[in-house]
Specification:
Number of strands: 0
CATH topology: Acyl-CoA Binding Protein
CATH class: Mainly Alpha
Largest sheet: none
CATH architecture: Up-down Bundle
Distance between the termini: 20 Å
Number of helices: 4
Structural class: mainly alpha
Shape: globular
Strand content: under 5%
Order of helices and strands: HHHH
Helix content: 55-70%
Length: 86
């Protein structure tokens, strides 16, 4: 099966997990998804509100993946969702 198809399936499966992942894992899923779909985080993605700690955490997690290819991010996302399913 092609990586794009696996990625789409993993997105659907992530919404059906039997238990909610930890906040750290949710940040990892978010950042891998954003890197896979948008590439590197840019300055336009910085939260406007300096007190938006959730937005800042998401941005920082995504920015930490700078340079990772979209394909590598997709594969890591698929692998993480599969790990969470088992």
């Amino acid at each position: 099966m092609e990586l794009n198809e696996l990625f789409v399936q993993a997105q659907a499966a992530s919404k059906l997990l039997s238990s909610k992942p930890s906040n750290e894992t949710l940040l990892q899923l978010y950042s891998l998804f954003k890197q896979a779909t948008n590439g590197d985080a840019g300055a336009e993605n910085v939260p406007d509100n300096p007190f938006d700690f959730v937005g800042k955490a998401k941005y920082d997690a995504w920015r930490a993946l700078a340079g990772k290819t979209k394909e590598a991010a997709m594969q890591e996302y698929v692998d993480l969702v599969n790990k969470l399913k088992s």
